[in-house]
Amino acid sequence: MHTTFAGKRIVVGVTGSIAAFKVAGWVSSLAKEEARVAVMMTDSACRFVAPLTFAALSGERVHTGLFDQEGDEAIAHIQLAREADLVVIAPATAQTIARLAHGLADDLLTCTVLATRAKVLVCPAMNSQMYSHPAVQENIERLKGYGYQVLAPECGRMACKEEGPGRLPEWELAREVMLQILAEPDLSGEKILITAGPTREPLDPARFLSNRSSGKMGYALARTARRRGAEVTLISGPTALSCPPGVSCVRVETAREMREAVLAHCQQASVIVKAAAVSDFRPATHFAKKVKKEQAELQLPLEQTTDILKELGKLKKKDGFLLVGFAAESHNHTAEGAKKLKNKNLDLIAINDIGSVNTGFEADTNQVTLLDKDGSSMLPLVSKEQTADLVWDHVVQMLEKRNRKQD
Asked: What structural domains and CATH numbers belong to the chain?
């Protein structure tokens, strides 16, 4: 499946740290996402992981020195520097950071970094005492001054048995930072509010009414919006998902709590996307103690919850935000979506077919129909992350159109 990394030339510089084994996993993941990965290894790195490992994982020959190139790669550091969309130094040792900070060009890695005009991401990994040393910290600040991105290490127990900062981050975080560097910041300056996941409406301390929403679509929207430069607040019902890096998360349980959180944040938002599956009903009575089955009624009286999306539609003109809704439909998709677009005063609605195994609740893929006052368009069946990017593409066009009218 086509991914955001597809076709991108990622040059990975591996240096002499035990964390090099984790970077082998990064290279494997990049290759699976269709990136064109070129690996450079220092002499010290080759003592930790064999070059053959990275060659097998990347599908390309590994570069290990300035003078061991063949054929048309006689000036490898220039070729790699020109081709790179992104240069990643991981793990970056104290020695490599010092050499980069002072502009040394004594091996393939440092020569390539000096010659490239691509973005550079440096991922320090070392003993915590080394990392905290003023000289290392000064060198890191110097790299930032050159415009290099630095991914701060995580805290934890390391191979040297010490605890503290210095661990190379996991792939999920590194991936997000790389994608943010590569992304077009076309949502920069926008404050985006997103809701995600289900709500739970309690019957008693042990039972509740809810739905099958996993929150994956809303979290994908938050992740990709942040990647594209937006300031993102995510209001989430109960899910098993972690808050995306750089996103402000507000956790709620019930429809009432979600409404309160949305109204507290909506006035600061320029775009609101309601992707949450808010419960339409809640038990009319909430019992403070667990209801015993011998005492339970077989009929459960319900009452409607507040329609948050409709309430936002009424506030939209006063507060000036762009309002996007999601509709989970099992039949008459376009007709039902058009009805909600009008009745709830939305600018855009994404209609999701929950009847398909590939697009319903808990699936990792999605295929939505986007509908606004100008017409509808069906998006392709892709991952939820790619679906989110396609939704943002449409939102960007709507924001640009609105700005032109205001000018």
From this structure: 9-182 (3.40.50.1950), 191-280+301-395 (3.40.50.10300)
